Amino acid sequence: MLIDRLAIDALSRECRRGFMRGRDSHSVRIVMVAESFLPQINGVANTARHVTDRLLAHGHQLLIIAAGPGPDTYQGVRVIRARSFGIPGYKEFPVGLPDPAIERAMADFKPDLVHLASPFIIGAYGLRSARRLGLPTVAIFQTDLAAFARQYPWFAKADRGITAWIRRVHSRADRTLAPSSASVAQLVQAGVPRVHTWGRGVNLDLFDPANRDEAWRREISPDGKPIVGYVGRLAAEKKVKRLAELDGLDCRLVIVGDGPDRASLEHTLPDATFLGMRRGTDLASIFAGLDVFVHTGEHETFCQTIQEAQASGVATVGPAAGGPLDLIRPGVNGLLFEPGRPGSLRQAVAQMLDDPARRQAMAEAGQRRVQTRTWPAVVDDLVNKHYAEVLQEAATRGSQARTSWSRRAA
User: Fold this and answer.
1) Using only C-alpha atoms, what is the Rg of the chain?
2) Is 216 exposed, middle or buried (0-12, 13-18, 19+ CB in 10 A)?
3) CA spacing 20 to 30 A to 270: which of 30, 114, 340, 397?
4) d(Cα 61, Cα 1) in Å, to the nearest integer?
5) pLDDT (tens digit, 9 = 90+) per residue, 28-59?
6) Where's the Glycosyl transferase family domain (predicted)?
7) Sequential DSSP letters for 122-143
């Protein structure tokens, strides 16, 4: 037993050293099963891409299994595309279907670990395959599907079933990583074991106050009024219609994004400027050009756009619920509003507009907060801590199983 324990400790140290040495390290083989991946643009796909980029930069070997159509390679990595279908209101978010080819591909690749990006359907099938193959698993919880379902009449009654399914899936993973303290508490309350916190990074090379474009600001606000903006999907769960509370405030409202609610929002918010979907440097310039960023959705497990606004040097207002609770310290780097109290959002934005000096101080504090939250730093934490610990735990279980078998044989 002592020899087994020493061997396990040595393996753990080697795993950690190997991860941290980067290109010179032992190459770890990882299968990523993603409910969404490029060319889709959403939080799940973006996170999966950043994780992939960093793993490749450190010389690890990957196989990606993803839902929906798209290229069959990414940065030289093979991408297996599972069959999928679209759902009403979310047709651009394909839902993958189970396929025996997933397990065959995993077995052929011979991975050390399986990374499940927001597992639901093909992720659940990937988890089942990993368990059958005896592979350790790390599951990333990213989307509160049960809360989203309640916003749509045709899914409203499915929220309990979705919660039960998420509990079932994540309970079978070796480790679940949730992006905020609120989502960790939600999963623990639902009965999911082995939940840890793992946040999200932000691209500081892209989102920067230096991208502020005064010509764009004059175009949006010729009279020099402060610009308040929202960036995100225009859908029921984002509660964008709540921006109607800002009517009458001395500001210009900008809406960036697209989705099924755009037409109704244009009717509800006739004075707002709708810019549609924007990406890359164009989006970064818009972020930096805002005076106040507002996020209205109360079901965010993290809320990446708040981090992007903070990196852009913009004061932020978000709901006192979910992921924003970890990102905004009220009165320090932004303000929170009460989702259940009418007028609370208007009051928070009005405070920002009425005190430019305080608003600027909060913007600077928000920018300082994200300086250590780069994607490389966040993914390195995933690898050096969570992957390494799960691999160590798997080695321990293997050693215990061998010892038990030896005792029975004796």
Assistant:
1) 23
2) middle
3) 340
4) 33
5) 999 999 999 998 888 899 999 999 999 999 99
6) 217-368
7) HHHHHHHHHHHTT--EEEE---
Residue with tokens 């099924």: 260
Instruction: Report how far residue 138's alpha carbon sits from residue 392's, in angstroms, rounded to the nearest whole number.
Output: 13
How far is residue 169's CA from residue 109's CA, in Å, rounded to a whole number?
23
Mean pLDDT, rounded, of the chain? 89
CA distances from 138 to 49, 54, 171, 387 (A): 16, 17, 11, 7
Is the CB of residue 207 less than 8 Å from the CB of residue 308? yes
pLDDT tens digits for range 358-367? 999 999 999 9
CB 125 within 8 A of CB 99: yes
DSSP 15: H
CA distances from 322 to 110, 292, 331, 371 (A): 37, 20, 18, 22
Per the CB < 8 A criterion, the answer to whether 58 and 25 are in contact is yes
Has residue 146 got a pLDDT over 90? Answer: no
- Residue position matching structure tokens 């749509």: 152
Encode pLDDT of 7-20 as tens digits: 434 444 444 444 44
Whole-angstrom CA distances from 108 to 63, 80, 105, 145, 399 are: 10, 13, 5, 32, 24
- Contact by Cβ (8 Å): 302, 43: yes
Residues paired with 254 in a beta bridge: 229, 273
Tokens for 227, please give them.
Answer: 């610009």
Q: How many angstroms separate the CA atoms of 87 and 94, rounded?
A: 7
Q: How far is CA 166 from the centre of its chain?
A: 16
- How far is it, in rounded angstroms, from Cα 127 to Cα 138? 9
348, exposed or middle or buried, with CB in 10 Å at 0-12, 13-18, 19+?
A: buried
Using a 10 angstrom Cβ sphere, with 0-12 exposed, 13-18 middle and 19 or more buried, the burial of residue 171 is: middle
Contacts 24+ apart (CB under 8 A), 336-345: 339/239, 339/298, 342/245, 343/245, 345/242, 345/243, 345/245, 345/246, 345/294, 345/296, 345/317
pTM over 0.85: yes
Q: Domains, the chain, ranges and CATH?
A: 12-201+374-404 (3.40.50.2000), 209-372 (3.40.50.2000)
Give the orientation angle of helix 344-354 with respect to helix 356-369, to 10 degrees: 100
**Identity of the residue numbered 190:** A
Q: H or E segment at 270?
A: none
